[in-house]
Amino acid sequence: MQNDERKITYPHQIMALIILTVFLALNCYRFCFSFNNETQIENLSPCLLEVKGEVPHPGLYYYDYCPTANELLNASGQSPDGNFPINQNSMVVLSTGTSLWVQKTRKGIRVARFSLEGKKKMLLGIPINLNTATSGDLSSLPGIGPHIADEVILFRETLGTFSKIEDLKAVNGIGEKRFKKIEKYLTVKPETIG
Fold first, then answer.
1. Spatial CB neighbours of 127, under 8 Å, sequence gap ≥ 6
2. Where would I find the H helices in 77-145?
3. Same domain assignment for residues 21 and 54
4. Cα 106 to chain center, whole Å?
5. What domain count does the chain have?
6. 49 closest CA partner among 64, 62, 58
7. Are residues 131 and 169 in the same domain?
């Protein structure tokens, strides 16, 4: 009997894998062939968010609008109770690239809000902000290792924020060739995590 059940679900798993692969391929194609950050942001779906932690349905969520934390928690199967701390406001509107981490406590649930990791942002076509990126985010860029990522952060801490992505060329280890390779993945526009 187990074999019969497995045969029934196997085609569904294959179909889900094919759909996911096509979706990712289309997003990668769209991201790789856009030539400036404005085009990338305009082509990006209005709101792409992640929920992880102790929820019934963790994962990525797509919205035609940017939802509140309560709406996202409801979609993930976690009905928010009235007293969970998320900047003291569960009605805060989230923005693309936000990740919520849900943890159950004795008093209810605790929700922390973060920006998506650099690798996920690249895969989903969300530009990485040079002024807020971590060393790990920068290391996920093609041709940028931990040493150059640390140079970028040192440059930012010493001289202040980047006003345009071209300022990155002044960092030790980033020449014209390397800059051309990574510029499509970057932005300096202020990013709101919530």
1. 37, 40, 41, 121, 185, 186, 187, 189
2. 118-124, 135-139
3. no
4. 30
5. 3
6. 62
7. yes
Q: pLDDT by residue for the chain (194 residues), tens digit each? A: 555 554 556 776 777 678 777 777 766 666 555 544 443 444 345 788 999 999 999 999 998 888 888 888 889 988 755 555 444 455 678 888 889 999 988 888 888 888 889 888 888 888 899 998 999 999 999 999 999 999 999 999 999 889 999 999 999 899 999 999 999 999 988 655 44
**Which of 115, 142, 173 is the last residue in one of the domains?**
115
CB neighbours of 5 closer than 8 A, spacing ≥ 6? none
Q: Is 106 inside a domain boundary? A: yes
Is 140 inside a domain boundary? yes
User: What's the 3-state SS for 141-172?
Assistant: CCCCCHHHHHHHHHHHHHHCCCCCHHHHHHCC
Give me the domain span that covers residue 80.
Answer: 47-115
Radius of gyration from C-alpha coordinates of the chain = 20
Phi, psi of 91 (to 5 degrees): -100, 10
Q: At which residue do the structure tokens 């798993």 appear?
A: 13
Q: How many residues does the chain have?
A: 194
Residue 107 lies in a domain: yes
Per-residue tokens: 147: 């040493």
